[in-house]
Amino acid sequence: MAVKVMIPTPLRAYAGKQESVEVQAKTVAEALTALTGTFGELKKHLFSDDGRLRSFVNVYVNDEDIRYLQKDQTQVREGDTISIVPSIAGGARI
Amino acid sequence: MSVASLKVRDEMMRRIHAHGVETYPHECCGALLGRDNDDTREVVDLLPLANRRDDSPRNRFEVTPDDVRLAEKTAREKKLELIGWYHSHPDAPARPSEYDRDHAWPWYSYIIVSVQKGEPKDTTSWRLHDDRAGYDPEAIEIIMHTSSI
Question: What pLDDT, in 10s, does the model give residues B54-70?
Answer without folding.
Answer: 999 999 999 999 999 99
